[in-house]
Amino acid sequence: MSTSLPVFALLALFGLVGGIGITAVGPGGVLPTIGLFLLTDLSPSGVAGTAIVTHVATGLLGTWAYTRSGQLREPTTRRTALLLGAAALVGTPLGVLLNTVLSGPLFAYLLASAVAVTGALVWVRELRSSGVDERRPREPVIIAVGLGVSVAAGLFGIGGPMLSVPLLVILGVPVLPALAAAQAQSVVIASVGTVGYVAHGSVDWAIAALVGVPELAGVLIGWRIAHALPERRLKYALAGALLVLAPYLALQG
């Protein structure tokens, strides 16, 4: 890896903007993964392991923020968070194991595909929605979402909100409760994922700190943004961010 100041500055910027996206629209957690993939010579497991470490602190801070603003005090949102977190205990280790067999190009293509499909689904649902069809998914559906998201999160080191938030929105959960539940799930995913990648020797702690500290600042900024923007704008911002990110990832394959 180059040790030039511009590289350090870019990694820190990826962390800052990623943190903003995590609590504002959900998919920001993929930006540290992208930054590490583009700017370092880390292997796919090194990228995912180093990125997922940063999400332990961001998940805790995001959980605190959404508890303070009331979303995680709501019984329905708390139950959703608990179900997502329980599923992550099973799914995250599977994702970590899958990462060990991925090549660099396949890593990029799979992540780009997941990002693009999720963004498109959110966009289509919002275009067809009247804005009054919000509903709460049943528990087996939430568990299935939590399992699938945690496998992908463990595989790519993306935390959880990137996929949990759009999928919950697709299922009818309002944006702020979806963001809140995803923060709590992210703590479980990141903690379990960190243990797995540390066991594989795939974490660069110095780079994780370089990305993770500005990412924490971004989490607080994003939380403020999420409460300042109308919900429909958040949904479009979420979908747009995913669709813009996907081609960049695919080009690295």
From TrEMBL:
This protein's record includes keyword Transmembrane helix: yes
Keywords: Cell membrane, Membrane, Transmembrane, Transmembrane helix
Transmembrane intervals: 47-67, 79-100, 106-124, 145-171, 205-226, 233-251
Membrane topology summary: Multi-pass membrane protein
InterPro entries from the UniProt entry: TM_pro_TauE-like, TSUP/Inactive_protease-like
Pfam families: TauE
Compartment list: Cell membrane; Membrane
Coiled coil: none
GO CC annotation terms, alphabetical: plasma membrane
Family per record: Belongs to the 4-toluene sulfonate uptake permease (TSUP) (TC 2.A.102) family.
Protein name per the record: Probable membrane transporter protein
